[in-house]
Design brief:
This protein has about 230 residues and is mostly helical. Helices cover about 85% and strands about 0% of the residues. It contains 8 helices and no strands. It has helices at about 1-15, 20-45, 50-80, 85-115, 120-140, 145-200, 205-210, 215-230. It starts with a helix and ends with a helix.
Length: about 230
């Protein structure tokens, strides 16, 4: 979370100095604030910090990020006016590196445990969609900005990789387990059917099984009538 909060500073500087649209200028500020809010929640629920302690820890970070961004925006605008572009490029590289670092830590966890855990695919989808829309927004700027596209494109590619890992390590085994389970149930049913068929073959014929009461009575009566006819 702190990596993404820190990434919002150079990203905001780059987007503002590059004169992107309002949405792209505001987005890094939202990224920093939401990342810090999530970090505070992690400290509250994970480390047991008091709410006042969380706020006391986050307030200096917010002030530092805001001051650094405001000062560097002024400085970089002066540099651009004088024809110096490398500081702006440095901000683009820093933002891309910090955003990528925030995602790459999940790759290390995936490599270690051979599964995608501790992350919501809904969150991944929302973040990836945000990168995609930002990429499209940069693409439709009056002047094509390759560095801006590289920033959002890098994180988008990494999130797509997380989706691919989730499909390989989580979805594929689940599908295979379901197929093997259905196959096992089908084999058990076939085995039961074969056992039932053998049992039915050992039963008497239907003529003896379904013998009626009239057949039981008619037999003796007919024999008795024959005896009386012979005596007569």
């Amino acid at each position: 979370m702190l990596l993404w909060a820190a990434a919002g500073v150079p990203l905001g500087i780059y987007n503002i100095v590059s004169a992107f649209n309002v949405a792209l200028r505001v987005q890094p500020q939202i990224l920093t604030l939401l990342s810090l809010a999530t970090w505070m929640q992690c400290c509250y629920y994970g480390k047991g910090w008091a709410p006042s302690t969380c706020l006391a820890a986050a307030a200096p970070i917010v002030a530092l990020c805001a001051g650094a961004q405001a000062g560097l925006i002024v400085a970089l605008r002066v540099a651009v006016a004088r024809g110096v572009r490398w500081p702006v490029t440095l901000m683009a590289v820093l933002s891309a590196a910090l955003l990528a670092a925030g995602v790459l830590r999940h790759y290390w966890d995936i490599y270690t445990h051979r599964t995608v855990r501790g992350i919501s695919f809904v969150f991944v989808g929302i973040d990836a969609a945000g990168d995609l829309f930002s990429l499209v927004s940069v693409f439709f700027e009056p002047a094509l900005n390759v560095q801006g596209m590289a920033i959002y494109g890098t994180e988008l590619a990494l999130w797509i990789g997380v989706f691919a890992c989730g499909g390989y390590f989580n979805l594929l085994p689940w599908v295979r387990k379901g197929i093997s389970e259905r196959q096992r149930v089908r084999e058990e049913q076939e085995a039961q059917a074969r056992e039932t068929g053998i049992t039915l073959q050992d039963l008497p014929s239907s003529t003896s099984v379904f013998r009626t009461a009239s057949e039981e009575v008619d037999g003796p009566v007919s024999r008795g009538s024959r005896v009386r006819s012979e005596e007569g």
